[in-house]
Amino acid sequence: MLALLAAALTVVPATLGVGIAVLGAAVDGALPYGGCSGDGGIGGGSQSIGGTEWNAEQTENAATVVAGVVGRGLPRRAAVIAISTVIVESRLVNVEYGDRDSLGLFQQRPSQGWGTPEQVLNPVYATGIFLDRLGELPGWASMPPGEAAQAVQRSAFPDRYGPQEEPAAALVDRFWTGPDNPVPAPGGAATVRAATFACPDQGGAGLPSTPTDIAPGQLPPGFTLPADPAQRAAVGFALAQIGKPYVWGGKGPDGFDCSGLMLAAWASAGVAITAGTVNQKSAGTPASLAALAPGDLIFIPGSLGSPTNPRHVGMYIGSGLIVNAVDSATGIIAQPLSDWDGQVVGVRHIAGPAERAAPVGAGLAAAP
User: Fold this and answer.
1) Against a cut of 0.85, is the pTM above it?
2) Which of 77, 207, 238, 360 is the most buried (most CB within 10 A)?
């Protein structure tokens, strides 16, 4: 498995939701546009960690990987190996391209048994299957730097993983809370615990909602899924999550926050989008309420955001409806887009045909 060529990637301000870490000396802490009050997210937004600058998407993905390790009760060493692998393979960016059929954070190849394209584009699944294969290696936790990663990845460039353990360890130190876990005995059960993220929940809709009576696994009366295959997959996935809980930082399968639901829905269509609401506001291409397509992302300020820094996102599914992971009290619902009348501050088109008739009664918020 070949690592992506980092030389082709350039730094873009983290407020745009894209960019690559600058490997150079820097003072640790939030960058001017970062932190929980800036571009935020479960990773704490754009910041310098261990002398390396990471944008909000990268810190979110690092936090997701650490959460996967913590949730399995594995030791910190597993998180360092996993993150060093992702730094090499994708620079902590969930990409939908790579060498041959490699995809996602870990550049996993569906043709080599890593899962479907839809699965490996979901960071939670990708982390989980990496950890599955890591745990199958005898003595993985005591292998020299880079050896365990290479044994899992089977890269043509085996020497690239070890040097990235230092920045990976700094990221793990940033997101790990509590004591280390012991290496599980073969066949033994690990102690599972919840992860603690860098920022408190920032994703609540902050608006009254009018849930429909759509039951999980059912379509709204008279509703037809989009004809376009990608839109059909994304919308169908979102509808299937109705009734599940809102979980801050969740990207499935049991719970989601608002941006995690968008990421997982489009991953199910084989389309990678960035993690985190602030990053997703630059995903795809600009669109408008006058030409909504199924699967478009619709942004509102939410409970803690603003018109220029929206913190909540839902998916337009057609027929004037959105699917929305509202908050921890409400969970995931389908509701009329008109509930967001006057609050919408942005729309992004992700894939498929873009032109659709405007729904009735959904006004774009006035510019600040």
Assistant:
1) no
2) 238
- Measured CA to CA in angstroms, residue 276 lies from 18, 126, 342 at distances of 11, 17, 23
pLDDT digits (tens, 9 = 90+) for 129-179: 999 999 999 999 999 999 999 999 999 999 999 999 999 999 999 999 888
Percent of the chain with pLDDT over 90: 69
Residue 178 phi, psi (nearest 5): 85, 180
Residues 6+ apart with CB under 8 A from 139: none
319 phi-psi bin (left φ>0, alpha ψ -120 to 50, beta other): left
Sequential DSSP letters for 182-211: PPPPTTPPPPP-----SS-------S----
> All domains of the chain, ordered by start, with CATH?
6-175 (no CATH), 229-349 (3.90.1720.10)
What lies within 8 Å, CB to CB, of 231 at 6+ separation is 269, 293, 294, 295, 351, 352, 353
pLDDT digits (tens, 9 = 90+) for 264-274: 999 999 999 99
pLDDT for 278 beyond 60: yes
